[in-house]
Amino acid sequence: MRRWALLLVLFALLGPACGGGGGSATSTGGCTGKVAGGPVTVKAWFHSGQGSERTTITSQVAAFNSSQNDVKVELVLLPEGNYNDQVKAAAASGGLPDILDFDGPFLYNYAWNRNLVSLDNCISSSLKANLLPSIVKQGTYADHMYGVGTFDSGLGLYSRKSVLTKNSIRVPSGPQDAWTADEFTQALKTLQSAGFAKPLDLKLNYGQGEWYTYAFSPIIQSAGADLINRQDFQSSSGVLNSSAAVQSLTVFQSWLKGGLVNFNVDDTAFLKGQAAVSWAHHAVYADYKKAFGDDLVILPLPNFGKGSKTGMGSWQWGVTSKTKSVDASWAFINYLLKDQQVVAMTTANGAVPATKSASEAEPQYAPGGPEYIFVQQLQSTAVPRPQTPAYPNITLSFAKALNDIINGGDVKSSLDKAVQDIDRDIKDNDGYPVKT
Amino acid sequence: MISSRTTNLKTRVGQDSVAPWLFSLPAILMLLAFLVTPFVLAVIFSFTNLRLLSPIPLRFVGLQNYVRVFQDPIFYRALGNNLLFVVIVVPVQTALALALAVLVNRKVRGVKVFRTIYFAPVVTVMAVAATVWRLLYDPDAGFINGLLGAVSGGAVHPNWLRSTSTAFLAIIIMSIWQGVGFQMVILLAGLQDIPHDHYEAAIVDGASGWQQFRFITIPQLRNQLLFVVTITTILAFRLFDQVYVMTSGGPLDSTQTLMLMLVDVGFGRQRIAQGSAIAVIFFLIVLSISVAQRRLIREEAT
Predict the structure, then answer these.
(1) Strand bridging mode A261-262 / A200-201
(2) Which of A157, A269, A278, B52 could pair covalently with A299 via S-S, beta carbons 3.0-4.6 A apart?
(3) Spatial contact of A80 and A48, defined as CB atoms under 8 Å apart
(4) Across the interface, do A88 and B33 touch by the CB < 8 Å criterion?
């Protein structure tokens, strides 16, 4: 009897603590315009991605701390591999820091759960006007801005001009001039017979994860399909498993079945010259450029019927509802958005600067520059990942389906499974209602 | 008057019953806090719609989570894989460990070096070992296919981790390599406990080497073998790390396991409630297997 009583007591003590789970906003007021109450110490989490990003953010924090006396930032670097999981765990247990960087499309879920505070009062109108439209688009949920990136991403096909011209393959001039899917498949076959046993590197070594959704959902979007119906974000049925999606991913699967894809286990397939085309994002630019110099060319992803599409979105900064001071936290983010700091970061990671003024000042992003195509794409053919709190589940379902397709599974039934799962998740969450 | 009586009572009873409780209190509290309570909570959560991050109010949904788990083909795939893993790994790994233990129990020069080598994988972190093995299994540049190619003249060339027919086998091989050293050390300790005069007496009776092994070594090792079989079975059901690193359950769910499914559903997809349902089912399965195992062993003993 007594044992049961003890158990019940424990229960009563622990139950509410564990069951609470969801977010309880403590401060949602936004910015007041000045940091109050002497020096404030705020904690910032950063995903430690590329080594050069780490060194840059570390020196940026040091420079910010010594530049003024009101705010002191304490930087915590966390491994990128399971960064999202760590943020989720911290959000569930109430252990979030003041400032957080997170992979773009997760913003909507955090904002919905009230883990982030709105930055509407913080961002000055001149800064907002200077941000790339893609940054504003992705940082906005339910008409409020919750996050802002200091850089955006670029996704394309890296190749070598000399290899393409030698094999008489047309070199597209920009996003509107992309290879058609057939042309691309043909080019791969040509390259294969020219000695590249497995000419296409899809960076499959990154594994099943956000990469799959980021890099390969533009395929179905280029065919006219999408991850979800964006009218109301309530269902993927007839969209993700539409015939356009099935057809385009069947073409994708044919590259794998035809032995055209290099599995790139050690991440060097393109650098070593085993692969002639690398389907990759901006982060590889520095290494590729070092290896191939001016011979390197970045091309748009193939056009599956409705024009080439590509991914957008990268890491963004947000202020959590657990912050001691929104103003102090924003002061640091605002500092990172100064042109000089934006350029310091994008020089380190090869990404596209988030402000127009910074990208104009950088020759490789200016018209004619090697990475200009990324800027062009962000203004034309780039598609944001669905701006819905359902995104974390959508991306897992799509990545799973895509992984099955990569491994030879039936395209239609893989997508049907994903649709069933996405739709059920949305229903379970009452349609992810927006609360104001 | 009353107070003295109660203290008297306390000391009388206390000497027998309070001290042991006091000594076991830390362990009991920890077990309650980290094992019993979370599990009881999991049972309750499994009947709700609880999510990791959600402002939607908690409500009871009855058996819905269980129904969904039992309707999910991945669940049966995962369960089947776990059982297959147990059925293959437990006997093979135990037999190998016994063979290795007998080998390194020989009084030969440099035997300590071999003991260390066989034990090395055990002290390696599983995630690291799995990462290295992923490279070893690479179809083109990996060591294993290099070796197979050299032996078979290029005829055998499996795409280990990306083929549904070999991926799980690859995980099994790697797991045995990693786990066998631990069992070997346990059995080795048992071997060294067997009094030498048993063997001397057997030799006097004219027993052959095989007979000595069969009628002295094996029966004397009974307890260690039982321990090894039990612990391997439990570890086999917990299969997660190497699969997570090497295949994440793919290709086409051919390496799914219950633990992998639990983490994906409960944490990745934030469905704590459905993850809890999987945990409860998992617990019941492991419990029934443990009980069955105990029954069998007890029967054998009598």
Answers:
(1) parallel
(2) A157
(3) yes
(4) no
Print the domain residue range for B249: 66-301
Which of A321, A403, A406, A411 should we substitute to test contact with B (largest number of B Cβ atoms within 10 Å)? A403
Tokens representing B295 are: 């029954």
- The pLDDT, as a whole number, for residue B301 is 53
Please determine, for residue A22, whether its predicted confidence score (pLDDT) is greater than 60.
no
Q: Do A408 and B252 touch (CB under 8 A)?
A: yes
Q: Is the ipTM reported for this complex over the cut 0.85?
A: no
Task: Tell whether B46 is covered by a domain.
Answer: no
Q: Which residue of A has its CA nearest to B74?
A: A417
pLDDT 10s digits, A294-321: 999 999 999 999 999 999 999 999 999 9
The CATH number of the domain holding residue B218 is: 1.10.3720.10
In sequence order, the β-bridge partners of residue A315 are A103
pLDDT score of B12: 53
Write out chain A residues lying below 8 Å of B270, CB-based: 88, 392-393
3-state secondary structure of B280: helix
The answer to whether the Cβ–Cβ distance between B56 and A430 falls below 8 Å is yes
List, in sequence order, every residue forming a beta bridge with A352; answer none if it has no partner. A152
> What percent of chain B clears pLDDT 70, i.e. is strictly above it?
93
Please tell me the distance from the alpha carbon of residue A8 to that of residue A4, in angstroms, as a whole number.
6
Q: Total domain count for chain B?
A: 1
Query: What single-letter DSSP state applies at residue A40?
Result: E
Contact assignment for A18 to B41 by CB distance below 8 Å: yes
| Interface contact B267-A19, CB threshold 8 A | no
Q: Is B58 part of the contact surface with chain A (CB cutoff 8 Å)?
A: yes
Task: Give the pLDDT band (50/70/90) at residue B107.
Answer: confident
pLDDT of residue B268: 84
Verify whether the Cβ–Cβ distance A407 to B164 is below 8 Å. Answer: yes
pTM given for the model: 0.83
B139 inside 8 A of chain A by CB: yes
* Max Cα-Cα span within chain B: 96
Distance from CA of A22 to the nearest CA of B (A): 5
User: Which residues of chain B make contact with A205, given a CB cutoff of 8 A?
Assistant: none
Per-residue pLDDT band for B297 (boundaries 50, 70, 90) equals: confident
* Residue at B189 is within a domain: yes
3-state secondary structure B79-138: HHHHHHHHHHHHHHHHHHHHHHHHHHCCCCCCHHHHHHHHHHHHHCCHHHHHHHHHHHCC
Give domain status of residue B121, yes or no: yes
Predicted confidence (pLDDT) at residue B21 exceeds the cutoff of 80 = yes
CB A6 to CB B32 under 8 A? Answer: yes
For residue A14, the model assigns a pLDDT of 40
Hey, what domains does chain A have and what are their CATH numbers?
38-148+315-350 (3.40.190.10), 155-310+388-428 (3.40.190.10)
Residue A29: the pLDDT is 65
Look at B53 and A393 and tell me if their CB atoms are within 8 Å: no
Predicted local confidence at residue A13, as pLDDT? 40
What is the DSSP code string of B166-234? Answer: THHHHHHHHHHHHHHHHHHHHHHHHHHHS-HHHHHHHHHTT--HHHHIIIIIHHHTHHHHHHHHHHHHH
Read off the pLDDT of residues B239-275 as tens digits, 9 standing for 90 and up.
999 999 998 887 888 999 999 999 989 988 889 999 9
Chain B: nearest CA to A118, how far in angstroms?
17
Percent of chain B clearing pLDDT 90 (strictly above): 45
